[in-house]
Design goal:
The structure is a homodimer. Chain A is mostly helical and about 500 residues long. Helix content of chain A is about 65%, strand content about 5%. The first copy, chain A, has a 3-stranded mixed β-sheet with strand order 1-3-2. In chain A, helix 3 crosses helix 4, helix 5 packs antiparallel against helix 6 and helix 15 packs across helix 17. The longest helix of chain A is centred in the N-terminal third of the chain and has 33 residues. Chains A and B meet through helix 1, helix 2 and strand 1 of A and helix 1, helix 2 and strand 1 of B.
Chain lengths: ~500, ~500
């Protein structure tokens, strides 16, 4: 880069860091809202978040940003150098942001802000009709957004691209078809086998003891408490304000021994990814997970491939048993392992087991596609939901609160987001399988409570890159190909055959 | 206001609220830094605070703000109407802010940022020499700042004006002379009397029990936990992000029964002031305490006039005794009251009792005046400190850490700030005396744990106004005059004569 370009780059970096600081601070406002903020502060907090987000957007999309990008353009599209990557990623975000008119952005913010309240009310009152008008508007706004951003094949692609760059709805459709074809017979076979005992997981388990156990595990797996912390919130989440300040939250249910722990492991998976991003990228657009799918692959890997594995409990079960002698004294390691891996079709996604989870996502993806294709009216949603649940999982929710109303995502305008959960599941198996190849005694390491080799491998191959490498590049580099369902299906088939007998 | 002016006002309000949101959010960054932030995040946090503060400053001092103020000027200087007050206060802040060149602002930020680290090191190592260079620069920058802002009589006035508008160094000097003349003989007389027992305050007192006791008292006095909260931090402070989100912190010392509680009462006094500001002012420059003196009067009123009073402990002592039976079982209410009001000259300001506290402030004010008058070199400071402590309090600190290095204020560039602590003490007595006139059975109310009448009186006469009324206006309205030392001296003489025998 010549000295003139260097000056342009320095100016661009200044803009990007200012925008980054505003966005990180908006995230702190949101973290505080969910953890410590007094209830009475809600209105002023909403205004503060909105002010910071708007200001970040306004500063980012100024003409000057475009001019600088123009003068710096022409760099290598695959380079992982700091400057080249930052220019490429900034160009991508800038171009998306500029395509949305301030009117459309304002309209989306206003509609989703209202829809969020309407949804909470509809959810609590089991009243889909009350939410339908807002959802219709949101679908319409998402269509407008897709048109503004542009797409080659399908308007859904423009929406999906926000969360999973490089991926198209055609790819997702094909991937999900493969998955469904294998998964439905597998779930049916499991249903026909005898279910492991699990009632003892729902005795009374002291919350403080659960918390302490979870915190020790987080330390063991390598979540860095010098550069992060865990707090309580109603809905677990992870967020970061810098690579040196990553916050995760969990909840503790005294009537469910493992739900809090698996939430902690899940969020710590997200958190360790953020903590592992190269410090050089801090404060820029590069210091983020490269796609929601890759992000979710990390949370699911620690939650499922590690946390729900036999080796993991070989290491930790005796300790857990000591902490809860009266409840677990007579439960063997093997029984415990089976109970935490019980497959049981249920209506609510966030309660779903590892096997049926992806079916919940496919259902949502199909509905979103039909809505965006305008082949389905919002009013027909509850019925279609019930029917598809029956087809996929053999059950029907008792009401809309347990059905079509269960997730807040659509109220927030997030159409195109759900597929990334399933994509993350699939990627987690691809990535874990590569890690196993690289660390042949990985399971033995886990059984000894040694997580450093795995974390170090993830650090080198995924964490450090931030957005310098795309999801496609990361997968290509590790597997020589793209996303596929077979490693996940193989993992599931192998694991659950042990518990339920041979699966199709 | 005609419709044109109304449009200007709306635009001004938009600017002011954006600036307010940025400042409030910077305060959240700072609150989080002192309470929950992981240690490793310090560097990125400093950058974020700096980005938000600079952006707030930059947006505020834009030409457009000046143009709008110009077009809206000519409103009544004493009005307490929302629009008139906002224009007046914004004009004041804008005019101060514009007088400081970006170069000077940058230079102050950079120097104090460095000085803060140097001070921490010097404080820990008892090495004033290490801090002297930075302090010299800070004095020089404060002089430049005073010249840029301008003053009528004394450069110190320009600095004091930032914290205590309308007050001059001549007034402070005269006030402090009166105070000193009465206070020094009083302290000497107390020194010659026998000191109350107090050793039992330093037995071991469980921290959780202390915390719970303090929380109950905060609820009783009326700190609103729907719109605020208390947390732990190394140094107690209060801050607010909106009138509906006021945060206070305290610390608990297991070897000191009352220091945590009095910190809580002190910060709750600040906090209730912020919570009581009229909600209409929220998010604007009006939603702040009107001066640091008035602010401190509220914290000291709840800490001392209420919290260290006999009626207060008539209400709470039995409860405290129940919580700490083994430590307090044999201590009478009267003895306890005497022990928490023990007067004992000591080198450290934050540990000072109510009587000697103001002498610590006078010492600092004299030194600041001489520094600003360039009659004292920074190198001569430690010696002057020792000598003046001897004159005022009859003691000398063992070292500079307990002496000239004890406070962080100068490292932060806050010359002109200290007098507001003593001003607050004096005002607290003036204000409490007015409250007593208005509520004749105030002491009986407090003895019954009824704080509502006092809080309501403060709400009506002080809290609600925010910056709509100046400190001068508030005092004038309540007392018919300005700040004087006599109500405070009278309060001290009366209270401490009961404990130590008749005082001069």
């Amino acid at each position: 880069m010549d000295s003139k370009c260097q000056a342009y780059f320095t100016e661009l970096l200044g803009i990007v860091k200012t925008v980054g600081d505003l966005q990180s601070t908006a995230s702190l406002l949101e973290w505080d809202q969910e953890t410590y903020m007094p209830k009475g502060a809600m209105d002023s907090r909403s205004r503060q978040v909105s002010t910071l987000s708007s200001l970040a957007h306004e500063i980012f999309i100024r003409d000057r940003t475009g001019e600088l990008l123009e003068m710096l353009s022409g760099t290598d599209g695959e380079s992982v150098g700091f400057q080249e990557s930052l220019i490429r990623v900034t160009q991508r975000d800038f171009s998306r942001a500029r395509k949305l008119s301030p009117e459309l952005v304002g309209c989306i913010a206003e509609t989703t802000s209202k829809a969020k309240s309407t949804w909470i009310h509809a959810y609590n009152e089991n009243d889909f009709g009350n939410f339908a008008d807002d959802l219709e508007k949101i679908v319409d706004l998402c269509l407008q957004k897709a048109e503004a951003i542009g797409y080659e094949e399908h308007p859904y692609d423009a929406l999906l691209d926000e969360y999973e760059p490089d991926m198209t709805s055609a790819q997702v459709t094909s991937l999900f078809e493969d998955l469904r074809a294998s998964l439905i017979p597998m779930v049916q076979a499991i249903q026909e086998s005898s279910s492991p005992k699990h009632e003892y997981l729902h005795l009374s388990y002291d919350g403080d003891i659960q918390w302490d156990f979870g915190m020790e595990i987080l330390r063991d797996i390598g979540f860095d408490f010098q550069r992060g912390r865990q707090d309580m919130s109603a809905h677990p989440f992870s967020t970061s304000f810098s690579v040196n300040d990553v916050r995760i939250t969990t909840r503790v249910n005294e009537r469910n021994l493992v739900s809090g722990l698996f939430s902690s492991l899940h969020e710590a998976g997200h958190g360790m990814y953020e903590q592992g991003i190269d410090a050089e990228l801090d404060g820029t657009l590069l210091a983020q997970g490269t796609s929601l799918g890759i992000h979710e692959s990390q949370s699911r890997l620690w939650e499922n491939q590690v946390g729900r594995s036999f080796p993991f409990w070989t290491c930790y079960y005796r300790d857990l048993q000591q902490r809860f002698k009266s409840q677990l004294g007579n439960v063997s390691l093997n029984d415990f392992y089976h109970s935490i891996n019980r497959v049981h079709p249920s209506p609510v996604r966030v309660d779903a087991d590892e096997v049926t989870y992806n079916l919940h996502i496919m259902l949502r993806f199909e509905i979103e596609m039909r809505l965006i294709e305008q082949k389905l009216s919002v009013r027909e949603l509850p019925e279609l939901w019930m029917d598809t649940m029956q087809d996929y999982l053999g059950i029907q929710p008792e009401n809309d609160t347990q059905g079509v109303l269960q997730d807040i995502h659509w109220a927030l305008g997030a159409i195109g987001y759900f597929p990334t959960y399933a994509i993350g599941n699939l990627m987690s198996a691809q990535i874990f399988s590569c890690a196993q190849n690289a660390i042949p005694d990985l399971h033995d390491q886990i059984a000894m409570g040694k997580f450093h080799p795995l974390r170090q491998w993830l650090q080198v191959n995924i964490f450090q890159w931030g957005r310098k490498m795309s999801a496609t590049q990361i997968l290509e580099r590790l597997t020589g190909g793209g996303i596929t369902a077979s490693p996940w299906l193989e993992y599931i088939r192998k694991k659950y055959s042990v518990i339920y007998g041979t699966l199709p």
